[in-house]
Amino acid sequence: MCFLIIVLLTEINGTCNSKNKILSIASGTSFGRCITYCRRSINITSNPYELIALKEPNFAQTQYPSVQQQYPISSDEWQKLISLIDSKSFQTLNDTIGCPDCADGGAEWIQINWLKKNKQVTFEYGKLIQGFEGLINELRSLRDKYVNNL
Ligand SMILES: *[C@@H]1O[C@H](CO)[C@@H](O)[C@H](O)[C@H]1NC(C)=O
Ligand SMILES: *[C@@H]1O[C@H](CO)[C@@H](O)[C@H](O)[C@H]1NC(C)=O
């Protein structure tokens, strides 16, 4: 009985108070040997519900100023994204997977900020990470939708 109560309390603590509450999910691409807009990213936050799209060059160039734009999103869109994230297994991933941008192939990254923790994982452009295919595909389609319009 006592044990059960402890388990229950731990569960409640884990869900509500929660170091595991996600504050933002960001994802982008970058190419090292590249001029013009070599870095493109989105950052989605829940407070407020919005998506910030950004494109920028690797170094300051007057012809290619950084461009950033905010878009409102719905709580449904946020929930959909959150549902694709297994926080625990994301936190166990290596920070670098494969050899991103090694042969000028480009890099792709995902950064998740929780209340008490941040983690960025960088992987080879165009590749998938096992267990995160849904998340990566959803982030790619959001990047296509928002960053391509900047
Ligand atoms: C995304 O935005 C949040 C809230 O402003 C910020 O804390 C976080 O660092 C940003 N993520 C990235 C990768 O810039
Ligand atoms: C994480 O990185 C280390 C060092 O590069 C490597 O030896 C290990 O196999 C990697 N683990 C996974 C799960 O990819």
Write a brief caption for the model:
Residues 1-18 form the signal peptide. Keywords: Signal. This protein has helices at residues 2-15, 75-82, 87-92, 133-147, and strands at residues 22-30, 39-46, 49-56, 67-72, 107-114, 118-124.
Helix-strand layout with pairing:
Layout: H1 2-15, E1 22-30, E2 39-46, E3 49-56, E4 67-72, H2 75-82, H3 87-92, E5 107-114, E6 118-124, H4 133-147
Antiparallel strand pairs: 1-2, 1-5, 2-3, 3-4, 5-6
Bound molecules: 2-acetamido-2-deoxy-beta-D-glucopyranose (NAG) (2 copies).
One 2-acetamido-2-deoxy-beta-D-glucopyranose is lined by residues 24, 26, 43, 45, 111, 113.
Signal peptide: 1-18
Keywords: Signal
